[in-house]
Amino acid sequence: MTQQTQTSLEGNILPTSIAQVGIIARYEILNYFRSRRFFILLAITLLISGLLTFAIAYEGDSIAGSPPQALPFYATYWGFASNLIVVFCAVFFGGDAISGEFQNKTGYFLVGNPIRRSSIYVGKWIAALTASLIMMGVFTVICLGNGFYWIGTSIPTQFVEAISFTLIYLVAALGFTFFFSSLFKSSSFSILVTVVLLLFGFSLIDTVVTNLIHVEPWFTLSYGSGIISNVFTIPYPQHITTVSFGGGGRGPTLTEYIPTIPEGLIIMVIYFALTAILGLLLFERKEFN
Amino acid sequence: MPSLEAVNLTKNYGKFVALSNLSLKIEGSKCVGFLGPNGAGKTTTLKLFTDMIRPSQGKALINGISVHENKRLALEHCGSLIESPEIYPSFTPKEALSMIAEIRGVPHDVREKRIEEAIAEVKMEDWKDKKVGKFSKGMKQRINIASSLLSEPDILLLDEPTTGLDPRGMSEVRDIVKSLKKRNRLIFMSSHLLPEVSDVCDEVAMIDHGKLLVYDTLSNVTTKFSGDGNSSIVEIGLARALDDSFPIGSISSITGVVSVDKMDSRNLRIKFSGGLEKQETLLSDLAAMKIGMISFRASGSALEDTYLNLIKDTL
Ligand SMILES: Nc1ncnc2c1ncn2[C@@H]1O[C@H](COP(=O)(O)OP(=O)(O)OP(=O)(O)O)[C@@H](O)[C@H]1O
Ligand SMILES: [Mg+2]
After folding, report:
1. Is the pLDDT of residue B161 over 70?
2. Cα distances (Å, whole numbers) of residue A51 to A59, A80, A86, A151
3. What's the confidence (pLDDT) of residue A8?
């Protein structure tokens, strides 16, 4: 990015592109804080956390064991809902981030100004990430509150790992939804496509590819994000498990693939990198007509 | 000196040529009106100057800098209002304008003052802290105008800036444009309102079917293209719709009448030579014919004649 700062005749000093990213992000966050969408998602997050708190209080024994153990508790709590919250955040905040600017014509207010399109894209992305982190924060705090109440302050390292993986998943999922929002000009369409893919599409592809084509589904984001829940299993599950039925190994076999941690991380990072680059390129080339 | 230059600027949509090889250089502090029928390519041209769309060929230069290659630098001294953009409904005018002020680097110490001034200029003081979401179309347009003025740019690109404004708003915007001219600004403004253009613009560029027809000073254009120098035009209004029995032939045969054209079912344009004296006898001749004439007026403006002469058919 060019860093030139110039004083104009009017006495204005055009901020650097990076500074403009910050400006966009700040105003986008302001817009989020006033949007119904933000509060709906906050309500959903609180609802999910509330239901889990309720479930732990009444079914604590069968979930976390008696006396309650940290690992099964966090595995259930986090494993159960973190994926859902990431998907909701990615879709709510990213699903129409760019397409909405076209559909509502709000993008026209900004583009005619001396700002790179990439600054607008990145600024909006950072705002979406910030809003999502607030949701994740709320969910994490309630989760920890439950953990501290039932088990005490010992936090298993697996939980810390799972949180870190979830954040990487969030980053990748937001990159992914931003890409689709950049691909389409209709906000409802881009939201629909991302919801379908993230909620069922990818898992469906995983199942089909594993069971029918017998190939490891290393190309889906949901496969990569599997490390979030798998990290709670000790020892970490085997990469490939083949179960054969009958006849001394000659009968039909069923293969299950589990991503290794490095593999899961690479899949998510590549998803982020590719969709971010493609999304940016698409937005750069998009015409405001 | 502020300048706008189109070099062989072309925009195709598939096989359709929306703008064809536009070459035009506008320089200095003045207001240039950009005229042409619907679909002529005016908005397309202005969008090419703000990098909202990419040229298929050629370049759009602002102060000599290619907009597409170096958008930040090219647009730094250029404000624009194209196609009534929407503002985030949750924002107040003040917030929306401070976002633009920050992006354009209006210094912190004068930011507040500039925003207040811009809001005052479009007479929206009473609304500056209300949410834009509930504004009427014209109120939003006023804020858009304020946002284009905010950074006090050297060059302003305005696409039908008075659309949606009430009559007073239109006149206020014309005054704003006139005052900007005095402050050494270059304004390039598309409009369908010919009286507006003759009022505020020094020069006009006319475009049709993506091609530039003429670019010259207002007075040169009108003397060159309105009438043929020694003929004038009057428009007459009729009480009843024209029908086959209407004696167009007898009007044409009045001495001095060059042509009679139907404007619509109740209005005729009569081109005649012979100046004011002839206009006087023409009026009494027509009145004597008892054709149901209820109005008789000299044609709107020289610019309108020019326009109608140059642009024969729309679309
Ligand atoms: N995205 C697009 N795809 C195809 N054709 C387009 C597109 N945008 C504009 N056009 C065509 O380009 C031509 C020029 O359009 P433009 O908007 O520049 O006209 P205009 O002079 O601004 O007209 P108006 O006075 O109605 O605003 C029109 O014929 C229009 O149909
Ligand atoms: Mg137009």
Report:
1. yes
2. 12, 11, 17, 19
3. 45
Nearest to B45 by CA among B9, B91, B94, B89: B9
The domain made up of B226-310 has a fold known as: Alpha-Beta Plaits (3.30.70)
Q: What share of chain B is helix, strand, coil (3-state, %, to 5)?
A: 35, 30, 35
Q: Pocket of ligand 1, candidates B9, B35, B43: which has the most ligand atoms within 8 Å of its Cβ, to mutate?
A: B43
Type and span of the H or E element at A254: strand A253-257
CA of B136 to the centre of ligand 1 (A): 25
Split at pLDDT 50, 70, 90, the class of A68 is: confident
Please give the angle made by the CA atoms of B287, B288 and B294, to the nearest 5 degrees.
25
Q: β-pairing, B155-159 with B78-81?
A: parallel
Domain boundaries, given as residue ranges, for chain B: 3-217, 226-310
Ligand 1 lined by B38 (C-beta under 6 Å): yes
Residues A289, B53: C-beta atoms closer than 8 Å: yes
CB of B39 sitting under 6 A from ligand 1: yes
Classify burial at B170, counting beta carbons within 10 Å of its beta carbon; exposed 0-12, middle 13-18, buried 19 or more.
middle
Q: Is A60 on the interface with B (CB under 8 A)?
A: no
Within 10 A of B288 (CB to CB), how many other CB atoms are there?
8
pLDDT in tens, A121-142: 999 999 999 999 999 999 999 9
Contact present, B191 and B34 (Cβ < 8 Å): yes
Chain B CB contacts of A109 under 8 Å are 85-87, 96, 100, 144, 147
Q: Where are the domains of chain A?
A: 16-195+263-285
> Quick one: which atom of ligand 1 is closest to the CA of B207?
21
* Token code pair at residue B156: 């302003």
Q: Is the bond into A67 cis (omega within 30 degrees of 0)?
A: yes
Phi and psi dihedrals of A99, rounded to 5? -60, -35
DSSP A169-211: HHHHHHHHHHHHHHH-S-HHHHHHHHHHIIIIIHHHHHHHIII
- Mean of pLDDT over chain B: 89
| From A6, A11, A287, residue closest to B107, measured CB to CB | A11
Interface test with B, best of A7, A12, A38 (most B CBs within 10 A): A12
| Angstrom distance (rounded) from CA B2 to CA B186 | 6
| Residue B243 backbone class (left: φ over 0; alpha: ψ -120 to 50; beta: rest) | beta
Which tokens hold the place of A261? 């941690």
* Cα dihedral A162, A195, A111, A126 in deg (nearest 10): -10
Kind and range of the H or E run holding A241? strand A240-244
What is the sign of the dihedral through the CA atoms of B278, B284, B290 and B296?
positive
pLDDT over 80 (residue A81):
yes
Tell me the per-residue pLDDT of B41-59, one tens digit each, with 9 for 90 and over. 999 999 999 999 999 999 9
Please list the helix, strand and coil fractions of chain A in percent, rounded to the nearest 5, in that order.
70, 5, 25
Q: Is the peptide bond before A156 cis (omega within 30 degrees of 0)?
A: no
Give the CATH fold of the B3-217 domain: Rossmann fold (3.40.50)
